[in-house]
Amino acid sequence: MKRSGKWSILILIILGLLIASALAACTTSQAPAATTSEQQASEPAPTAVPASPKPIVVEVNRNVGAINPTSSLAITRGMDKVAQECVSCHAKETPGIVNDWRESRHGHVGVSCLDCHIVNKDDPTATQHETLIGTDTYISTLVPPSRCAECHPNEAEEFDHSGHHRAALQVEGKDAMQKLIHHHEGQDNPEFNNASQETGCMQCHGIRIELDDQGNPTPETWPSAGIGNVYPDGSVGNCTVCHTRHKFSIAEARKPEACASCHLGPDHPDIEIYENTKHGQIYAAEGSTWKWDSAPDAWEPGDYRAPTCATCHMSGIGELTTTHNVSERLYWNLWGKRSKVRNSNDPMSPLTGDGEQGRAKMKMVCTSCHSERMTDSYFSHGDKAVNLYNEAYYDPALKMLNDLKDKGLLKENPWADEFQKIYYHLWHHQGRRARQGAMMGAPDWAHWHGFFELQQDLYRMQDIYNYRIENGKIEEP
Ligand code: HEC
Ligand code: HEC
Ligand code: HEC
Ligand code: HEC
Ligand code: HEC
Ligand code: HEC
Ligand code: HEC
Ligand code: HEC
């Protein structure tokens, strides 16, 4: 599929050039928006909407990058009057948005504001601008992934099979987490107990977005930059976290910064881990000179010298095709309390993915640049570290916890109990850092922020455990 895509890529490039020149012709004669912010400041964008040009119908071949070899998509070049009005008025009202859109692939192929924001009158999110009142055009502020899926069905389906899909759903159902958010972090404050959710969890994980009686999203649930938003129509995800609106650029999503807003910090320091690797070091030294905008599945070593997060977890490379399922190339679950091998088709399962196949695919990434011997030896180091964590740290910690629980020697509030706090840090912070640092080749995180801290945790837990068992009571603080 991949190789036969070459002709379609060529065809697309030719089409692209045609479209670009058509667009250039359109924009010079009738562009509603100014090109630079300076121009914008000095000469206001024209508001009059020119007559629609003769529509150019472009057949976009969907066989690029094995996206969807069977379907094709018709784009009408000449946007209708309503669509043009969105652009011309918003060029004044929200010039940043219009500028991003104009520079995007969507802008180039004529996917307009209306294509994403239009909804039926009876849609619960339907609203009307003052200028739209009296017309039959209704728009929605929210653009759920189901809308993107109308034109990009495969990306959305792959996303729905990934661990990203469950990011908000899994937080919703869990009492302990709701208690952490509202009771412990929110201190049951009558007005502000949701603040830590709105500024924290939700901005990474997402939330179930709710509507007010006007059809607008409520301030408690929007804006949410989280990856697993649940939209009023039931569709799940947030396509704007890696390729941000309104540019929707693959070049942006391929850079490690696209993942860094969420994959950082004490409990999953993936960007810090990356910076600690040779790959990250090479990216920092010369990434600005790499080619970032090759077509999907045609972005290959040579365009770049070292892999980014996307290269290893998502992009096509060698015989591997691009995927929006970030769980597809994984072997272990490395965030859980004890690491197990992935073996489930259910995106709601912590073990979503197929461990054996995941490992084989990840190795295909490495062997595009490294030898098989180096790759195999590398993974034997990492797996050893994960097994060491499981057996030498997690198992004994859990045994002590269960003993104390049986004997009634745990405080009811886990966040005010020294033993339970260290237990949490052992698996959730230090333990993840050791495992993820080891599997992603970051010695500082595997060792100093990982195993070194783990042995300290274990010794401290053993002291507290011995005290409680010997004295039959919880120590004074
Ligand atoms: C005559 C001017 C005008 C036209 C035409 C217009 N808009 Fe707007 N639009 C606005 C203004 C003003 C706002 C409010 C901006 C603000 O809150 O700062 C807005 C807000 C929006 C919002 C955000 C709503 C919210 O509550 O956050 C969306 C989405 C939007 N417009 C889309 C569109 C689309 C799609 C079209 C074409 C059908 C369109 N607009 C046409 C002026 C216009
Ligand atoms: C490819 C789809 C797409 C296109 C094309 C598009 N939008 Fe959006 N727009 C989105 C998405 C996604 C959001 C985020 C909404 C959400 O949180 O669900 C959004 C949000 C917005 C918002 C509210 C958020 C903010 O940042 O203020 C405005 C206003 C808006 N769009 C205006 C426009 C205008 C004007 C155009 C045309 C120049 C446009 N959009 C074209 C997808 C699109
Ligand atoms: C009406 C159809 C349509 C809708 C709706 C749509 N797109 Fe697109 N999108 C296209 C077309 C056509 C292209 C250009 C051909 C291609 O690259 O596949 C494109 C290209 C892209 C690209 C590649 C950009 C690049 O740098 O090459 C991304 C990413 C993307 N869309 C994301 C989205 C997201 C996210 C949404 C929803 C918020 C969305 N699209 C909604 C039709 C659409
Ligand atoms: C907006 C926040 C956000 C961004 C951006 C983001 N992620 Fe995630 N990611 C998450 C969250 C939250 C989870 C945990 C989901 C869960 O299990 O609840 C996650 C989980 C994962 C997982 C583990 C999935 C599993 O099955 O356990 C991988 C791998 C991953 N992300 C890779 C990436 C990569 C690569 C990028 C960038 C290209 C990225 N993420 C961008 C928030 C994000
Ligand atoms: C800075 C972004 C960020 C914030 C804030 C955040 N998380 Fe996460 N969370 C992540 C990422 C990324 C992962 C995936 C870790 C991995 O794969 O190693 C994750 C993993 C998880 C997991 C394990 C995955 C699963 O499916 O069970 C849970 C549970 C979780 N987070 C709950 C929360 C809760 C509850 C909050 C707020 C009290 C929160 N998170 C705040 C980014 C964040
Ligand atoms: C975790 C980050 C992330 C999220 C979330 C994400 N994308 Fe992407 N997307 C990427 C990356 C990285 C690429 C470039 C892959 C490559 O190197 O070819 C990409 C490429 C694309 C492309 C170009 C064609 C292709 O498949 O490579 C489209 C279209 C697209 N994304 C649409 C979507 C849609 C629709 C959603 C929501 C369902 C979405 N993306 C969510 C990271 C993301
Ligand atoms: C050189 C390839 C490579 C790069 C670059 C890379 N990763 Fe990884 N990543 C891996 C491997 C290998 C694993 C462990 C897979 C396994 O389970 O065997 C992993 C594991 C993960 C996990 C843990 C999933 C879990 O089960 O908890 C997350 C999250 C993740 N990576 C995110 C990222 C992010 C974000 C970046 C960029 C900042 C990144 N990765 C860069 C190869 C890479
Ligand atoms: C795009 C090519 C590319 C890919 C893909 C790639 N690497 Fe690398 N890697 C490099 C380059 C370049 C270096 C720095 C030169 C060197 O030391 O070999 C490097 C360095 C390393 C190093 C440090 C070696 C040393 O002796 O300094 C390790 C370990 C490594 N890579 C492991 C991996 C693993 C594991 C994968 C797959 C999960 C992978 N790499 C994928 C290009 C790549």
Notes on the structure:
- Helices cover 48% and strands 4% of the residues.
- The protein is mainly alpha-helical and 477 residues long.
- Among the domains are: 107 residues, no CATH class; 95 residues.
- The strands form 3 sheets. It has a two-stranded antiparallel ribbon with strand order 1-2. Strands 3-4 form a two-stranded antiparallel sheet.
- A hairpin with an 8-residue loop joins strand 5 and strand 6.
- The N terminus is likely disordered.
- One heme C binds next to helix 7, helix 8 and helix 12.
The order of strands across the largest sheet is 1-2
Order of helices and strands: HHEEHHHHEEHHHHHHHHHHEEHHHH
User: Strand fraction band?
Assistant: under 5%
What is the radius of gyration computed over CA atoms, rounded to a whole number of angstroms? 26 Å
Mean of residue pLDDT values: 88
Low-pLDDT regions: 1-75
Label the structural class.
mainly alpha
Q: How many DSSP-defined strands?
A: 6
Shape descriptor reads: globular
Give a short account of the largest sheet: 2 strands, antiparallel
The helix fraction, in percent, is: 40-55%
Number of helices: 20
Bound molecules: heme C
Task: Outline the fold blueprint.
Layout: H1 5-30, H2 37-42, E1 57-61, E2 72-76, H3 81-93, H4 95-102, H5 105-109, H6 113-117, E3 118-119, E4 138-139, H7 145-151, H8 153-160, H9 169-172, H10 175-185, H11 195-205, H12 250-254, H13 257-260, H14 270-275, H15 278-286, H16 309-313, E5 343-344, E6 353-354, H17 355-366, H18 372-406, H19 418-439, H20 443-471
